[in-house]
């Protein structure tokens, strides 16, 4: 009986306290223009049966200040506090000669990142411990 009550309490607690209203939505800006439509699963789905689970994580936002066939440059930061995410792991998926190549880079101490590109940027994933992953699909344009 005690276990059932504890389980019920945790279920209600997770669904009520850890709702998406307590976090900011991830934001994406490309060369000073909002591009939130490129974010995959932008709206978090927290809760006991949600795809993001019961644990509330912070959200990652990103500015892409320069993007062309040769270079990507920008900043990774906390969606709510706007603090840089030092050492955030960034995975770039580039179409090159009819295949997809992956480039792994990290944000520096100011949350800044930069990488040369040798092809068209297809997708991008950003990971940071304690944060929900940010997934971007450039084919959604």
How would you describe this structure to a colleague?
This protein has 141 residues and is mainly beta. The protein has a single domain (25-41, 57-140), classed as Sandwich (Immunoglobulin-like). The protein has 1 helix and 11 strands, in the order αβββββββββββ. The strands form 2 sheets. Strands 1, 2, 4, 5, 8 and 10 form a 6-stranded mixed β-sheet that branches. It has a 5-stranded antiparallel β-sheet with strand order 3-11-9-6-7, with no helix packed on it. A hairpin with a 3-residue loop joins β4 and β5 (71-78). The protein is globular and about 60 Å long. The termini are far apart.
What is the second-level CATH architecture?
Sandwich
Output the CATH class name: Mainly Beta
- The CATH topology assignment is Immunoglobulin-like
**Share of β-strand residues:** 35-45%
What would you call the structural class?
mainly beta
Work out the number of β strands: 11
SSE string, helix = H, strand = E?
HEEEEEEEEEEE
Number of helices: 1
How large is the radius of gyration?
18 Å
Shape: globular
CA-to-CA gap between the ends? 53 Å
Low-confidence segments? 15-21
- Averaged pLDDT, please? 83
Q: Note the main sheet.
A: 6 strands, mixed
Helix fraction bin: 10-25%
Give the total of domains.
1
